Every structure is written in structure tokens, then in C-alpha cells.
Here is the input.
Amino acid sequence: MDGHKEEGEQKEKLRDIPSVSEILAYPAVVSLLSSYRRPFIVAIVRDVLAVLREAILAGEKVDISREVLSSMISEAVESIKKPSLRRVINATGVILHTGLGRALISDYAAEAIKTAASDYCNLELDLDTGTRGTRQIHVEKLICNLTGAESALAVNNNAAAVMLSLHTIASGREVIVSRGELIEIGGSFRLPEIMEKSGCTVVEVGTTNRTTLEDYRRAVSENTALLLKVHASNYRIVGFAERVSLRELSELGRDLRIPVMYDLGSGALIPLDSEPVAQRAIAEGAEVITFSADKLLGGPQAGIIAGTKQLVDRMKRDPLARVARVCKLTLAGLQATLLQYVTSRDVVEENPTIQLICKPLLEVEKSASALARKLKKSCGDALTVELMDGDSMIGGGSFPTLQLTTKLVAIRPAHGSVDELTKKLRLGDPPIIARVANERLLLDMRTLKGSEHKEIVSSFQRIVNQ
Here is the structure.
């Protein structure tokens, strides 16, 4: 009987829910209709009613008064108006954090993107002749200048760069690659799958930990189109291991008249620890190199192909090049970033991503001490604040074994859990993304800007005063 009674009450509550047309006549909703398109408001009303029905069927108590419904609809409108892609404060210590957008671009590059977005530009117009040109002209010479390559091409990411290169050079033929270099990176991107999609046949040589030059030589056949080398950017094989250097593989390629391609992955243009540098790869004989622009280069998302004119010009004519084509915003940001590499006496001062990587520990420590003092002063006994030594990561599939010494501001709330505190910071405005270890919330000062201290302190004040 109780079950039947409950079912009857639910049906009665469902019948009591006002119709869409009734709600559209509410004064608060009429006001919204004067500011927004009717289909937009109608869709929100229907969504709100669907939520109410689900709550009633779940046995929850629901208030369907005019005031509550009007408030729910207004809040839904405000929520939708707020862009889901938002600025966040990165306190994780991961510099190239894929979830947080990877590289920070310079103010100069950001201004170039803004100009290209808000005005017309000569994207594919040759101003000298008045005829149609190519959009690649805006970056090609800069890439060649920085890498020593004969020709270059920018596409929408490095996966596209690899796929286009393989498709152009080796579709329907064999590509030889070391088994220890068949990488997988974030987002389940697996090199063998990209190679398969490009139309080539993968020929694996060697073992996971050891590949010799003779392994490549023995695998060559009349159907071999390419020797591929891949930088294992997100892992290291140590111990009983052997790999073939790019110079050795390039010499073999020249002897056999088979081109050599090198996927550098993260794409450093200046020496940074053990990461391969694009210029050196070309100098050591690679006929094609590919790398990302939004990692160690510190630019917008793009993939860069550089190499011999014969091979790269073929890629420009491949129909896939149109599929992977970059837009004017990417080109504007990439051109500005590359210009700073070419013209700047000290690119570290110009490039915010490289600044974070090279930030002196003393500067990090001073920033940590300053923030800790502010938090103690503003939040008092509500927080336990202390300084700790720690390590930052470059991230983005770069430097898997390199850790940068940093200083952490470690925080424990007097009330509530660290997980609750972490969630409240994440849901704040702006969201603050930190990391948690040993029952402490950790703010890594390497990825924080001094200008963000005030917002961080305000967020903690708001939370402890709730």
C-alpha cells in the first residue's frame, strides 16, 4: 500500500508542475525573453522541468513555486552565459600541463593573435603582386632560419605532422622503426596506429631495450620507403639498453638512398638539458623532422615539419595538408613566437614557458615566503601554512626523468578535509588548481605568477570565512 501511495503522490506532484507556456508568462521569465532569443529560453525552461521531474521520481522533495522556478531558470541562463573555457591559476608545478593548456605564449604573440582575430589580414594574399599566395609564407622562412632546413610547413599539431609526413613519403610502402620507439603519449595516441592510418606498413626492428644499426639494415627491402626515428619523450629505458643515434641512422639512409625522418616530439629550438634540438637533428642528417609548437617551443598549438625541399614540397601538395591546415590565429601566434627566437638576444626573457623552466630557485623561494606570510596574516588559525622543498615537472611528454627543484606552500585546514579545500579552490573564481600529498594541499610556486598572489589569498579568505 505504501508503494502505491508513494507512486500516487509522485504522479500528483508531476501533474502540479506548470507547463512551459505557463512558466514563459512568469514576470521574471518575460524579462529574460526581452533580452534573449525565445528558443534559448524555452530550451532552458524544458531542461529545468526535466531536472524537476527526475528529482520527483527519485523521491526528493521539490519546490515548484513560481519564485523557485524563476530563480532556477535565471541561474541556468547565467551559467550558460559563462564560457566553459576559463582562465585558471596553475599551482600544480607542471609547466606544460595538457589539461591546463600547455605552453604559455608571450604577450607579443597574444597581441598578434588578437590583431589577426579582430581585423582582416593578408593570410593568403601576396601584397607585392596582388595575387593569391600561400599562408605558409608567414612562418616557413622563420622555421628554416631556426632549424637549418630547406623547406618547412606548419600544421595543426604534431600528430598531424607525423601522419602527413608518413602519408606523403611512405603510403603503400614500408617504414622501419625501432620497437623501443613505438611510443604512446597522452590521450591514447599510439604511434603504430597513426602509422597505420597514414597508409604505410610498420616494420619493427630490434627489441624494446636494444636496437642496433644492423637490425635496420637487415630489415630493408625493395619496398622500404623510410627509416623512422622517434624521440622517446615521455619515458626512458635504462640499464642493458642500446639505441642507434640519428647520425648513424642518417649515414645508413644515405648509403641505401632511403630518407630518414626524426619525430622530435616536444620540439626544443634551444638546448634544454637532454632534449633533442631541431637544428642539431637537421645537421645530423635527418631529411624530415617533426615536432610540436606548444611544448618546449612555447607557442600556440601546431605541428611543424621541416626538411629537404624535395620531401616537404611534396607534403604541401598532399591533400592531407588541407585537412591539417592551420588557421590565421595559429599562424599569427606562431609567427610572433618564432620572430622572438630569431630576433631576441635572450629568448628566455621573451618566452614565458622557457622562463618557468629556467626560473631560478631563489626567485621561487622568495615568492613562496611572500605568499605564505600573506596567507598566515589573512587566514590566521584557520590554516596551517608551512614551506616545503619539492619538485616541479616540465610535463607535456617532455623530460620524463628531470625534476626541477622548487618551493611549496603546504596548507592544512583547521576544519574540514584537504580534499574539500581542494574542491572549493577548484570551483572558485578563478579556479585554483593545486596538488595534494600527505594530507596537505600544495601550491607549487614555480608555476604561479606574483600577480596571482592576491587572488589566491582572497580565495582562501572566502573559504575559511564560509
In short: The first strand starts at residue 89 and ends at 90. The chain has three domains: 2-81, 89-96+357-464, 107-350. Residues 38-57 form the longest helix (20 residues). The radius of gyration is 28 Å.
